[in-house]
């Protein structure tokens, strides 16, 4: 039996970029005081902008390839490579990966693209970035989506992550920066198998492997350790302070990241909670239609809400 | 390469109720000729109508599953199962499976579904029945699209077919009734992988094997023995075709030859297109690309206005 993940790992390293369903209208680099260059792309046009925030840098902005062509028919769409992957710079010290630096990256991109406000989308362990932007810069955030948010440390991940050097790294035990530095491909293979367990996922497997192997264990470790999560109480307090419309989505099937932040966070934020029945993990990649319809419906409601607000007498 | 899938996939293909469809038929029924019932479905409304032709009895009308929902938003779409697979009957006489019989089935399905005229779209061996129908019923056929056409009987395939019992069956040796009879699921898997060589085709391969297992070895062998169009008959048939023609080939085609496909386009004054990176079934593997190509061609060449103008002359 041929292992799909191994097959992908053997041949994607030097691949040419696959063709895209849609190409950006604009590409560029933005930076702020620390001089790290962050790559962004702009698709489509219009008054309402959707901004896919930089993901955890095991992936890059092409992880939104199933969303961009669809949403950019209806909205202006910005996608950002995180510092540490894609075409963004990859600083070698963990302080460069702070949440504050990421907030400044997004603001720099919004400035560079003349985007006054955006409807932002964060995913998994980069949810704190969405929460920081929504609460600290409400003037720039028109709405916020949190896909499978990881806002505070979860024991199942903290335990292996802080376990240090081990004799063996099995299953979630591989979620350990010591192992990432020791045998990054082993982690990538396990991660890919875990997030792409469904039949007919060869394309998603190839893409996950390609993004991951474009980076390395050191950068991922720095970017994971350097990026501060919130404490549970702080996250929920901030959630209650969000003034813009919020949507939280959660896998309804298997999940890679634990699901336990979603419910309490959505409740505190007064958010719409969308559970994808039977779908997951990696809904955006494996079931793009389900994700896209949920995103579009939410963004359309925000847009029409804005129109109502604009039309209302002061 | 389909190395993405373990060999022996056919053993894992589940014979369960079919998966959910993106669109369900508005109408269905049977067309009956000489006691043989042929199952058809009609989706949507809109001109020109599109008749998605029954393929080789190895598979059935669900090979069009990626075309039906798209075209049914704009057109009346009619599909039918080949005698020998799907919900159509399985006569046990090879004479019942001649290409001429299949062509008559197409017309019978048009009659039964109340479809006066249509653009015919076919894949693979469906080409021969489509060519006959277009030649013999010019008043019913507004256009003909041939995807990966097997334009006439292929002597190389016939040679494999007639080798008789072998000690071992490698590669094309498998296109042999002895092997098909001995291990039909393994034959099905080999053939499906051959027609779908593109990466990331696991879903299409799984479905293809499923469709093949919806019939059986004896039926397929009987159906395959039906009389085909001979090479020297193609020109005469093509001369009688009055409608616009489009021939589409996949760049990675491994099952049918380019030369007869090109010649078919020349003989009918048709257009010829190649789908990059595609194998024998571009409609299954690259449906968006193929659907847009066909829709553009149909609206340009077979548009209702143009058809009405031509009819009034």
Helices and strands in order:
The complex is a heterodimer of chains A (314) and B (313).
Chain A: H1 4-11, E1 26-30, E2 38-43, E3 49-52, H2 68-71, E4 76-80, H3 99-112, E5 118-123, H4 127-136, E6 141-147, H5 155-161, H6 177-182, H7 184-195, H8 202-213, H9 217-225, H10 232-241, E7 246-252, H11 262-269, E8 272-277, H12 283-286, H13 288-311
Parallel strand pairs in A: 3-4, 3-5, 5-6, 6-7, 7-8
Antiparallel strand pairs in A: 1-2, 2-4
Chain B: E1 27-33, E2 36-43, E3 50-52, H1 68-71, E4 77-80, H2 99-112, E5 118-123, H3 126-136, E6 141-147, H4 155-161, H5 177-182, H6 184-195, H7 202-212, H8 217-224, H9 234-239, E7 245-250, H10 258-267, E8 271-275, H11 282-285, H12 287-301, H13 304-312
Helix pairs in contact in B: 2-3, 6-7
Brief write-up:
Chain A is of the alpha/beta class. Chain A has helices at residues 4-11, 68-71, 99-112, 127-136, 155-161, 177-182, 184-195, 202-213, 217-225, 232-241, 262-269, 283-286, 288-311, and strands spanning 26-30, 38-43, 49-52, 76-80, 118-123, 141-147, 246-252, 272-277.
């Amino acid at each position: 039996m041929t292992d799909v993940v191994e097959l992908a790992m053997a041949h994607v390293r030097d691949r040419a970029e696959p063709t895209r369903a849609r190409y950006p209208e604009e590409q560029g680099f933005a930076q702020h005081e620390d001089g790290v260059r962050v790559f962004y792309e702009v698709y489509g046009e219009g008054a309402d902008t959707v901004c896919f925030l930089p993901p955890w840098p095991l992936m890059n902005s092409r992880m939104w390839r199933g969303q961009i062509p669809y949403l950019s028919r209806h909205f202006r769409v910005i996608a950002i490579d995180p510092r540490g992957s894609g075409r963004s710079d990859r600083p070698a010290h963990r302080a460069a990966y702070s949440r504050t630096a990421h907030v400044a990256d997004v603001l720099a991109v919004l400035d560079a693209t003349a985007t006054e406000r955006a409807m932002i989308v964060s995913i998994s362990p980069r949810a704190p970035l969405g929460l920081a932007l929504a609460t600290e810069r409400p003037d720039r955030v028109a709405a916020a989506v949190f896909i499978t948010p990881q806002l505070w440390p979860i024991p199942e991940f903290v335990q292996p992550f802080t376990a240090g050097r081990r004799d063996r790294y099995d299953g979630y035990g591989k979620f350990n920066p010591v192992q990432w530095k020791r045998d990054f491909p082993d982690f990538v293979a396990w991660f890919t198998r875990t997030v792409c367990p469904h039949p007919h996922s060869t394309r998603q497997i190839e893409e996950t492997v390609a993004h991951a192997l474009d980076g390395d264990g050191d950068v991922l470790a720095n970017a994971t350790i350097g990026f501060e999560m919130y404490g549970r109480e702080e996250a929920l307090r901030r959630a209650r302070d969000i003034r813009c419309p919020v949507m939280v989505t959660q896998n309804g099937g298997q999940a890679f990241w634990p699901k336990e932040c979603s419910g309490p966070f959505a409740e505190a934020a007064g958010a719409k909670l969308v559970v994808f029945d039977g779908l997951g993990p990696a809904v955006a990649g494996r079931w793009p239609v389900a994700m896209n319809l949920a995103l579009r419906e939410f963004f359309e409601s925000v847009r029409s809400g804005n129109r109502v607000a604009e039309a209302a007498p002061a | 390469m389909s190395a993405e899938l373990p060999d022996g996939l056919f053993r894992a293909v589940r014979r369960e109720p079919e998966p959910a469809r993106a669109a369900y038929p508005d109408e269905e029924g049977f067309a009956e000729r000489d006691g043989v019932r042929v199952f058809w479905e009609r989706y949507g409304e809109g001109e020109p109508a599109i008749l998605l032709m029954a393929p080789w009895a190895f598979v059935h009308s669900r090979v069009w599953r990626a075309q039906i929902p798209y075209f049914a938003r704009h057109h009346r779409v009619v599909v039918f199962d080949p005698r020998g697979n799907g919900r159509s009957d399985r006569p046990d006489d090879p004479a019942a499976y001649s290409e001429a019989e299949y062509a008559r089935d197409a017309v019978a399905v048009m009659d039964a579904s109340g479809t006066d005229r249509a653009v015919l779209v076919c894949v693979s061996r469906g080409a021969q029945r489509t060519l006959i129908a277009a030649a013999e019923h010019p008043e019913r056929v507004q256009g003909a699209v041939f995807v990966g056409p097997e334009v006439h009987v292929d002597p190389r395939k016939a040679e494999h077919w007639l080798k008789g019992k072998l000690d071992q069956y490698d590669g094309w040796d498998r296109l042999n009734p002895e092997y098909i009879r001995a291990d039909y699921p393994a034959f099905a898997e080999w053939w499906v992988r051959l027609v779908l060589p593109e990466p990331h085709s696991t879903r299409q391969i799984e479905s293809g094997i499923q469709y093949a297992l919806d019939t059986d070895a004896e039926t397929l062998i009987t159906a395959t023995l039906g009389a085909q169009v001979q090479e020297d008959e193609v020109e005469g048939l093509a001369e009688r075709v009055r409608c616009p023609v489009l021939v589409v080939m996949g760049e990675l085609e491994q099952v049918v030859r380019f030369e007869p496909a090109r010649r078919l386009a020349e003989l009918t004054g048709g257009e010829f297109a190649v789908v990059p990176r595609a194998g024998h079934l571009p409609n299954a593997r690259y449906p968006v690309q193929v659907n847009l190509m066909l829709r553009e061609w149909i609206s340009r060449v077979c548009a209702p206005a143009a058809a009405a103008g031509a009819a009034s002359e």
